[in-house]
Amino acid sequence: MARTAQEAERFRDREARIVETARDIAEQDGWPAVTVRRLSDAVGVSQPILYRHFPAGRDEIVARVVIQGYADLADVMRSPAVDDDPAEALPRLISGYLRFAQAHPAVYEAMSTARTSVAFASTDTPATLREGFALLERAVGGADERDRALRAELLWSLLHGASQFAAADRLDPALDDVRESAIAGLFLRR
Q1: SS3 186
Q2: 115, exposed or middle or buried, with CB in 10 Å at 0-12, 13-18, 19+?
Q3: Are 179 and 81 in contact (CB under 8 A)?
Q4: Per-chain mean pLDDT for the chain
Q5: Domain carrying residue 97
Q6: Residue 34: which residues within 8 A CB-CB, separation 6 or more?
Q7: 151 within 8 A of 144, measured Cβ to Cβ
Q8: Alpha-carbon gap, residue 183 to 170, rounded angstroms
Q9: Mind giving me the DSSP string for 37-68?
Q10: Burial, 94: exposed, middle or buried (Cβ in 10 Å; 0-12, 13-18, 19+)?
Q11: Whole-angstrom Cα distance, residue 4 to residue 123?
Q12: Dihedral sign, CA of 162, 79, 133, 23?
């Protein structure tokens, strides 16, 4: 059925509200609280209307939260200008990543551990995720494409581990700045 431009805009706005509401509920009450019933009630639509937007239901909504979360994280990581001195840009990227994970724990949880249809490290990986990984690759550099990918994976893994330990209060917050500088130091030495 053909839609007018106005109807299409309302459809996109409602989809965005559903995804944003899922994020809000997850941040307040955790992912188990994000149900189709609760979402439809919170957004003010019937469950059939919600399924019209997201035929796969909750799983599709979580996948959209994951993709949007990576877009938001890429924006944070992109804040250092591409031509900035790596000695300045890499520490800002590291700090931004860790602050994002701390500020959005439920979204970050979905991004890092939720089982979704979002493909990683494949030809089916969404462009947003590939762009974010490319930011990591540029930040760490390397001798060639394979070396850059490996270094980016290691940085990503290290940042993920640090963010998870920090979220579980396993790291001393007084050492955050020193820890971030030490992580950057590992990747600035080539």
Answers
A1: helix
A2: exposed
A3: no
A4: 93
A5: 64-188
A6: 22, 25, 26, 58, 61, 62
A7: no
A8: 17
A9: HHHHHHHT--HHHHHHH-TTTHHHHHHHHHHH
A10: buried
A11: 34
A12: positive
With cut-offs at 50, 70 and 90, classify the pLDDT of residue 137: very high
Which residues, including other chains, have CB under 8 Å from residue 172's CB and lie 6 or more apart? none
Token digits for 91?
């520490």
Cβ–Cβ < 8 Å for 110, 66: yes
In this structure, the chain runs to a length of 190
**Do 114 and 171 have their domain in common?**
yes
Q: Is 184 exposed, middle or buried (0-12, 13-18, 19+ CB in 10 A)?
A: buried
Backbone angles phi, psi at 30, to 5 degrees: 90, 160
Structure tokens at 18: 């559903």
- Distance between CA atoms of 33 and 138, rounded to whole angstroms? 38
pLDDT tens column, 31-48: 999 999 999 999 999 999
Q: Is residue 91 located within the same domain as residue 150? A: yes
Residue 109 in tokens: 């949880």
Q: Are residues 162 and 99 in the same domain?
A: yes
Q: What are phi and psi of 55, to 5 degrees?
A: -55, -30
- For residue 44, give the CATH number of its domain: 1.10.10
